[in-house]
Amino acid sequence: MAGYLWSEATERRAQGSLRTALWRLNQDTNVLCAGPNVVGLAPDVWVDVDAVMSEIRALTRTDTPIGATLCMSGGRVLERRDLLPEWDEDWVVLERERLRQLRMHALEELATLWAGEGRWREALDAALQAVSLEPLRESAHRVVIGIHLREGNLIEAVRHFDAYRLLVRREMGIAPTSRLTELISAACTENSIPEMRAHRSMTNR
Fold this sequence. Notes:
Elements: H1 2-5, H2 11-28, E1 32-34, E2 39-41, H3 48-58, H4 65-73, H5 90-116, H6 120-133, H7 138-151, H8 154-172, H9 178-190, H10 197-204
Antiparallel strand pairs: 1-2
């Protein structure tokens, strides 16, 4: 840590600077705890990332008070923030991606839950947030399309499918999976709209 923070100083001077910094930090508040080989945050320090992670884990436990509350409000899972966005160290990049993946799953779960309760606005907002975190993620788009269909907005569902189909073709040179295309095809068939643009794109391409 001393070498990382004072990379241009000698080892002895860097270690001295670290000791001084730790002493000054703990003069006014016990932010850090330090041992012979480890420096970390004190146990009672509140960290927003820890709070988000706790809420993500709690979302799967709707039988608990916090889980039920989160399913009603969405909590911090809906907040649009990245982990240390200006840092590019390897460990930060890995943790940032882990948090992003967990948030995407949580947002999809929230959107599906809220759609089941008929809370269309909140469901669509959560699903579109998942899409914004990773525009190529098909499961997030499938949730968006499913919400449109359950709400009775077939045209919106077809429009979203078409936009996603063009996106993955342009960016990846591939087509949506059969699971997604069959979802739209079944909805169009059920509503007797075989000539919909999305339906044509699935059968002709």
